[in-house]
Structure formats: structure tokens, C-alpha cells
Design a protein that fits this description.
Largest sheet of chain A: 6 strands, mixed
Distance between the termini of chain A: 38 Å
Structural class of chain B: mainly beta
Shape of chain A: globular
Radius of gyration of chain B: 13 Å
Helix content of chain A: under 10%
Order of helices and strands of chain B: EEEEEEEEEEE
Oligomer: heterodimer
Largest interface: A-B, 19 and 21 residues
Shape of chain B: globular
Largest sheet of chain B: 7 strands, mixed
Number of strands of chain B: 11
Chain lengths: ~110, ~120
């Protein structure tokens, strides 16, 4: 079983739409959670950390559900520039290792 | 701040040759550097973790004699793919973290290796 699993998508949405997707993780001891964005043939870039209480950064909202071991990302008012692959990333306490999901591809169309 | 560079950005080589990839932290001291590999449509897979001045720790299934890692200074780590074969063709990405940035890893732009 993979440590981090994501729906690969793709999610094809029109500009202005809201899109949301989840990620599940297998290790209940995981302590830190992140969403990264990866554009085609580029390195991952940190989009936002995910906190227990949920957090928002502009049009992006992240939620963490420890009981069910999943993380979600919601993008409001989608822009063309939001088209990318979104990687769910998890790591355990006191461990610098990051476990990556395979990514969820989002395509925003005009 | 927190810029990580990789060189080369892409390389094409013949089967059997060795390829060296450099990872540099440009504006901070990286106590730990990580090497990942990513195949198309797959997640980044950690290959090894290296701390400056000590031997790298390899993940299960990664051959340490094939993927040589050197972390000789706080700003430079190198990955050498020895006797490369077509199945080694992949996107290799390094990341670096500093003592002051617990958990945060800064990624290099990646190196695309194609072995003919």
C-alpha cells in the first residue's frame, strides 16, 4: 500500500469554477502535511502547509482530517494559471523524509 | 532566498557511461540534501538522504554502488549514476534543508537524464 494516495484526475474545469480533491495517507504517526504544485517538467514548489485547524491562502483552502487520515485542497475561482499537478506530501515527526503522492492533475480551460 | 540549483538541467548519454549531477544551495548552508527520482506520471521517490561529511543513507531498493552520492560541503552534493542504462532514464531532483528550516525542503530544478 502506498504511503500517500491521490486521485490522479485529470480534473478539467472552466475558469472561475471551484475544484477540490483529496489525498489519503497511511501512517497515522504523520505529523506534517503539505500541498506542492508541480508544472510539467519542473520541480515541485511548495503551495501551502496544511494545519490541523485548516487554513486558507487566497483562493486555496486546505483541510486535514486526522481521524480519517486525509487532506484536501480546494481551489476557488480557478485561473488558467492554476493548471498544474498538485502533490500531496506527508512526513512523520522528527523525520526529514517526505512522502509524495503521485499528484492530481488540474486543467483549467478558458 | 533558499535557492537550489542543479547542473546539468538535462543530459543525454550512451549506455554504460557515468553521469554526475550537481546540487548546490546558493544562499544557505544545507546540512541535509535529498535525492529523488521521478518517472513519468509517478510520484517523486526518495533515493537517498545525505548529510554533510557523512555517508548517504539509501532507501530500500536503491543500489548505493550504482548511485554514488557525495556531500563534501554544506553547499554541494553530487549524485553519480554509474554505468547508466536506459532504465535509469528519469527526472532526478535534489532538495536541501537547513538546520533553521525544520521540515522545509527547497527543491532544485531537476535534471532530466536520457540514456540511449
Amino acid at each position: 500500500r502506498k504511503e500517500v494516495e491521490q486521485d490522479p484526475g485529470p480534473f478539467n474545469v472552466p475558469e472561475g469554477a471551484t475544484v477540490a480533491f483529496n489525498c489519503t495517507y497511511s501512517n497515522s504517526a504523520s505529523q506534517s502535511f503539505f500541498w506542492y504544485r508541480q508544472d510539467c517538467r519542473k520541480e515541485p514548489k511548495l503551495l501551502m502547509s496544511v494545519y490541523s485547524s485548516g487554513n486558507e491562502d487566497g483562493r486555496f483552502t486546505a483541510q486535514l482530517n486526522r481521524a480519517s487520515q486525509y487532506i484536501s485542497l480546494l481551489i476557488r475561482d480557478s485561473k488558467l494559471s492554476d493548471s498544474a499537478t498538485y502533490l500531496c506530501v506527508v512526513n512523520e515527526a522528527n523525520d526529514y523524509k517526505l512522502s509524495f503522492g503521485a499528484g492530481t492533475t488540474v486543467t483549467v480551460r478558458a | 532566498g533558499a535557492v537550489v540549483s542543479q547542473h546539468p538541467s538535462w543530459v543525454i548519454c550512451k549506455s554504460g557511461t557515468s553521469v554526475k549531477i550537481e546540487c548546490r544551495s546558493l544562499d544557505f548552508q544545507a546540512t541535509t540534501m535529498f535525492w529523488y527520482r521521478q518517472f513519468p506520471k509517478q510520484s517523486l521517490m526518495l533515493m537517498a538522504t545525505s548529510n554533510e561529511g557523512s555517508k548517504a543513507t539509501y532507501e530500500q531498493g536503491v543500489e548505493k554502488d550504482k548511485f554514488l552520492i557525495n556531500h563534501a560541503s554544506l553547499t554541494l552534493s553530487t549524485l553519480t549514476v554509474t554505468s547508466a542504462h536506459p532504465e535509469d532514464s528519469s527526472f532526478y531532483i535534489c532538495s536541501a534543508s537547513a538546520v533553521s528550516s525544520y521540515n522545509e525542503q527547497f527543491f532544485g530544478p531537476g535534471t532530466r537524464l536520457t540514456v540511449l
